[in-house]
Amino acid sequence: MLRGDGLCYFFAVGFAETGRFISIGFGFENVYGHGHDDVGTGWVFEVERQCSLVYPGIDEEEFGHSKPHQSQQNPKDHLTNEDVVQLLNAQPLNHFAKPGKYDYCNSNYALLALIVERQTGIDFREFVKLRIMNPSGMKYSHLANFDSLGLVNYTVQGYDKKRVFADNIFNGAMGDKGVYANVFEMLAMDRMLRTDYLLHPDTKNQMWAPQTVVSADAYYANGWRVKWINGQKWAFHNGWWKGFRTYYWRCLDEDKCFVVLTNNVQGPFLRTIDMVGLLK
């Protein structure tokens, strides 16, 4: 947790040593996941154009939560983002939300990662490292490639109580998960987002502009959730993936944020409203 007056709280407990890297369930959709994205000087993507892809609204959380077949426990070939497109094309139209209805879907971000690759000609892992992580001072954070370095080689594993989650084919898709980082480097990204170096001010305003009403006091914007707490606007995203649960909350009206990275999904999500209260 960090306040603008320089007060910083840090605490660690659990199965991993302090400073180890944790998988972030929400990926970096928060930074590149909206309509007109200018990540780094000279990179502008116009993705609000008509796509030739058939894009039924399959919920990645739906197939992500499914138990992998035994043959997928130690997959030889992980799913690629091109494979995700094929999965989406194969879905029936009733996977769409009804017109005018909100239906959260992580798979959109797998498509955005593929669009980034096609528009830039750069591997998405390399793009994120070059255009987001390096400028933010995130020296050790990275997108995992389990085909070159297997999941079992990571010091930190994802747990459900005492059960370790095995690798599965869906770990290969990028854009909606697969980032390994720690709280210090996520804080570094918060510092960078408070400048205009990584994203132009107009882009950030668009990124945090409410688009869809989720509840009485919360909205979904472009890659971020938005909520007003005690008159202050917060942009945030929680996430999970196979034993990891993460929280990234940033106050837009005051210089404060909190980052929580966990590697055990036992129990419900933390009450983030309580954690916001700690930063008063």
Give a description of the structure.
With 280 residues, the protein is of the alpha+beta class. It has a single domain (2-277), classed as DD-peptidase/beta-lactamase superfamily (Beta-lactamase). The chain contains 8 helices and 14 strands. A 7-stranded antiparallel beta sheet has the order 1-14-13-12-11-10-9. Strand 9 (212-215) and strand 10 (218-220) form a beta hairpin. Helix 5 packs across helix 6 (183-193). The longest helix is centred in the middle third of the chain and has 14 residues, at 107-120. It is globular and about 50 Å long.
Secondary structure elements and their pairing?
Layout: E1 2-3, E2 22-24, H1 29-32, E3 36-37, E4 45-46, H2 60-65, H3 81-89, H4 107-120, H5 124-136, E5 142-143, E6 159-160, E7 163-164, E8 179-181, H6 183-193, H7 201-207, E9 212-215, E10 218-220, E11 225-229, E12 232-241, E13 244-251, E14 256-262, H8 272-277
**Integer tally of domains:** 1
Number of strands: 14
Helix/strand-derived class?
alpha+beta
| CATH architecture assignment name | 3-Layer(aba) Sandwich
Strand content bin? 15-25%
User: Percent helix among the residues?
Assistant: 25-40%
Biggest sheet features = 7 strands, antiparallel
Please tell me the overall pLDDT.
Answer: 78
Radius of gyration: 18 Å
Distance between the termini: 11 Å
Indicate the overall shape.
globular
CATH fold name: Beta-lactamase
Order of helices and strands: EEHEEHHHHEEEEHHEEEEEEH
H/I helix tally: 8
Q: Superfamily at the CATH H level? A: DD-peptidase/beta-lactamase superfamily
Can you identify the CATH class? Alpha Beta
Catalogue the unreliable spans: 33-73
Q: How would you write the strand order of the largest sheet? A: 1-14-13-12-11-10-9
